[in-house]
Amino acid sequence: MQTTHHKPFHLEYAPSIESTDIVKIEAKNKLFIDGKFVEPTSKKYFSTVNPATGSTLAQIADANAKDVDLAVKSARKAYSKVWSKMSGKDRGKYLFRIARLIQEHARELAVLETLDNGKPIKESRDIDIPLVAAHFFYYAGWADKLDYAIPGKDVKPLGVVGQVIPWNFPLLMAAWKIAPALACGNTVVIKPAETTSLSILLLAQIFQEAGLPDGVVNIVTGAGETGAAIVNHNDINKIAFTGSTEVGRIIQKAVAKTDKKLTLELGGKSAHIVYEDAAIDQAVEGAINGIFFNQGHVCCAGSRLLLEESIASEFVDKLKTRMETLRVGNPLDKNTDIGAINSAAEHSKIQKLIQTGISEGGEYFEPTSSQLPEKGFFQKPCFFNNVSSAFTLSRIEVFGPVLAISTFRSVSEAIAKANDTQYGLAAGIWSEKGSKIHKTAAGLKAGVIWANTYNKFDPSSPFGGYNESGFGREGGRHGLFPYLSI
Amino acid sequence: MRTISVQKEDGNQIAIQAYPIDEVGANERADFFTKRSLKKDSKLSALYLAMSMCDLTTLEGADTPGRVRQMCAKARNPVPPEMIAPLLEKKGFAPVPSVAAVCVYPSMVPHAVEALHGSGILVASVSTAFPSGQAPLQVKIDDTSFAVENGASEIDMVINRGAFLSGDYQTVFDEVVAIKKACKDAHLKVILETGELGSYDHVRLASEIAMEGGADFIKTSTGKVTPAATLPVTLVMLQAIKDFEKRTGKKIGMKPAGGIRTSKQAIQYLCMVNEVMGPDWMNPQMFRFGASALVNDLLKQIFKEAAGHYYYDKAFAQD
């Protein structure tokens, strides 16, 4: 028998910080129009901050309507003179080259994404950037096969497309938009979110390195007014937007009186259903990944956890234990699981909704273990248990690490509760019983349904929503349709 | 969920739940721990801890008293005192701990006991017709009693996989109970031989049967079958231990064995134990590595942390 008594041993993880030496951030970042970096005619710049410290990273050009017009003109010229005339095979070559260069610059892109966005380096390195490259590889393969995309149909590009993307996956959303547009023969004017412009500007350098013809992709940085200038420009053939439902409504109204095509990928309040016959430990992990991945800044986040009542208390106990081990902190630390909230505005919005949740009477839990850094915008992961469907947190998208938990008693009640929302982007089902998964999936009104996993993305799989989560699909063969005249 | 029922010696039935395990999810969760990055002080403390958790093992047909004595000398002093002296002058460096135990066949137990006398290092013995377990129960009991009577303080038994895979859970349970009895005061580690069980569902069920039968530790593998220990299979067993503790209050130990050769792997296991089980399992009473090659790699890494460069492989004794 062991004679010595062993004390509990606390294994501390010393900081393991990814070096930022690999990235060179320009003090002033210009617009990317007609293959060149150019001063904005507005002469105005705004700051972008590192959300983990609150300090300014760089100045970003603020594009006005005139800049957007220059970008559209450049895209139109590139469309009619070069890109629409090029064979699909040759367009594919450019896309393959871009994909390979993204892989070569992967570390640089990951560090820059983490600095500007606040997401953990572990995620930008292992998820975002590999998926960005995969998306370009995937659509590169389609470029010379468009004739076979829709059997019996002759397809043509649309022309110039205007794209507006969010800040939660800055480079990945750029890839989702740019890769299919270019594969189909369109040219692009794209606006990143004003808080996360840097990584797409590095992508612009990759376009230059790849020798992409001038004007095929134009990047105009700025906030809402810049976006409005794109949406309202009369020489744009299609608008693709990913972002909030609120802005999506404004865009749909603006586009309604034109012949522009439109796709919207908007908010969500996705249900994550766990049946009593699920593999519980893996389902707990799925719930964690569903809501705390990327600080919960995920449009398809599993923000409503629906537990079969017979396992609810066991499940919630396990969830609490697991949440105690989540490491919130410096996004550049390789051991960080939850990084910084992207901006002060988002942070205060999340905190306000948590206060609402508390005042409405949900049972609040946050882990006691994690200490938040003093500077920067950080939020502890948390959940509300026994939330009613009428509560704010069951209906309003928080877009942060806040989970709402409620219970159900049967398959039909699970489906009814899951569908009791104005959104319909995604859903998750956990059960070891295949027939139950199929029955549930058939009843759910959601664009993406995961079974026994969550937040899995692949370029070959279409993504998009029902109802107020928007319309149109991105990814896969379906992701070609919005960029083609059929 | 499937429930199996086994009968205890007193005639009472106990129900054992066959908890389903999602294989993809378990593999992903285990992979998470390969992304942890331990540097500097954290790394050093993990290396020392791993060393103190090693069961230095020789289980060969060719084992001799001489070979066992050699290994026991290494167990006492993984590195000669003269070699460690310069290291101790550095800040934060402590003497390298001895390993937790040596693990040998029953016939070698008397030699190991003699060689380790006074060292505090435990002698563990495999038994029950290791590694196949294909022998009559009485032979398995005698095998175990021989080891215990000759001074083994830990017994590593193998479960009856033939019985398990044919659905005869009662026999598996009865054998664990019988060997536990034959162990007397010795600790019982129950080897599931996960590489032969075919699924994580089976690993989980075998873990439950072993713990209900009286295991003090559950152990992945004999080291004679591929795959031996893996991170996900260890995770599945740790989660079974965690649930068992919640149900019964009993804390069961865990020993992955076979295939763990590098410090990097050992640190991944320790991060997993740390985050899944917590600090109570972070000691040799509750967690062991069944490994031999690992010891030298730990030494290599400890010396590298002190000296700032890697030592020549030949700097450390092979056995």
List keywords for this structure.
heterodimer; A: 486 residues; alpha/beta; Aldehyde Dehydrogenase, Chain A, domain 1; Aldehyde Dehydrogenase, Chain A, domain 2; 7-stranded mixed beta sheet; 6-stranded mixed beta sheet; 20 strands; B: 319 residues; TIM Barrel; two-stranded antiparallel sheet
Domain module count of chain B? 1
Rg from alpha-carbon coordinates of chain A: 23 Å
Work out the helicity level of chain B: 40-55%
Percent strand of chain B: 5-15%
Pick out the low-confidence regions of chain A: none
CATH architecture annotation name of chain B: Alpha-Beta Barrel
Strand % of chain A is 15-25%
Number of strands of chain A: 20
Per CATH, which architecture of the largest domain in chain A? 3-Layer(aba) Sandwich
**Mind telling me the CATH superfamily name of chain B?**
Aldolase class I
Please report the two chains with the greatest interface, counting residues with C-beta closer than 8 angstroms to the partner's C-beta: A-B, 32 and 40 residues
On the 0 to 100 scale, the average pLDDT of chain B is: 95
Q: Under the CATH scheme, which class of the largest domain in chain A?
A: Alpha Beta
Query: Which strand order does the major sheet of chain B show?
Result: 9-8-7-6-5-4-3-10
Q: Kindly, what is the distance between the CA atoms of the first and last residues of chain A, rounded to a whole number of angstroms?
A: 77 Å
Low-confidence stretches of chain B: none
- Enter the CATH topology name of chain B: TIM Barrel
Structural class of chain A: alpha/beta
Assign a percent range to the helix content of chain A: 25-40%
Number of domains of chain A: 2
Strand and helix layout:
The complex is a heterodimer of chains A (486) and B (319).
Chain A: E1 28-29, E2 31-33, E3 36-38, E4 45-49, E5 56-61, H1 65-83, H2 88-104, H3 106-117, H4 121-142, E6 156-157, E7 160-164, H5 170-183, E8 187-191, H6 198-209, E9 217-219, H7 224-231, E10 238-242, H8 245-256, E11 261-265, E12 271-274, H9 280-292, E13 304-308, H10 309-323, H11 344-360, E14 363-365, E15 382-385, H12 392-395, E16 402-408, H13 411-419, E17 426-430, H14 434-443, E18 448-451, E19 470-471, E20 484-485
Parallel strand pairs in A: 1-5, 7-8, 7-10, 8-9, 10-11, 12-13, 12-17, 13-16, 15-16, 17-18
Antiparallel strand pairs in A: 2-3, 4-5, 6-20, 11-19, 14-15
Chain B: E1 2-7, E2 13-18, H1 23-32, H2 40-52, E3 54-57, H3 65-76, H4 81-88, E4 101-104, H5 109-115, E5 122-126, H6 137-149, E6 154-158, H7 161-165, H8 169-183, E7 187-191, H9 200-213, E8 217-219, H10 231-248, E9 253-255, H11 263-276, E10 289-290, H12 293-307
Parallel strand pairs in B: 3-4, 3-10, 4-5, 5-6, 6-7, 7-8, 8-9
Antiparallel strand pairs in B: 1-2
Helix pairs in contact in B: 1-10, 2-11, 2-12, 6-8, 8-9, 9-10, 10-11
